[in-house]
# Entry
Amino acid sequence: QVQLVESGGGLVPPGGSLRLSCAASGSIFSINAMGWYRQTPGKQRELVAIITSGGSTDYANSVKGRFTISRDNAKNTVYLQMNSLKPEDTAVYYCNVDSRASWYGKVLTYWGQGTQVTVSS
# Structure
């Protein structure tokens, strides 16, 4: 079992910044990709950013140039630095981790509990 604990959400004015953190713990042999998703009421959960074990990144077009995803492999932690925030960034943000508990185990997907980000004056 893997547990993901998120932190860093909150209320911020337009143009402000926040940094989200997600720390993974538990039965972890290796972690493959780590990512951030977001969801607003009535909408499908969408991919915001993803980072591979090798450090390659990809972003949704709506956040390119404003958000940066990074990871600390020693701490099994993924971060999302969010700059120049807009009201449309308001959502619940969820971290996601693909991991294996052993060398022979299949890759399993785990989700954080979600953290609210509200961009408003």
The mean pLDDT is 95. The first strand starts at residue 2 and ends at 7.
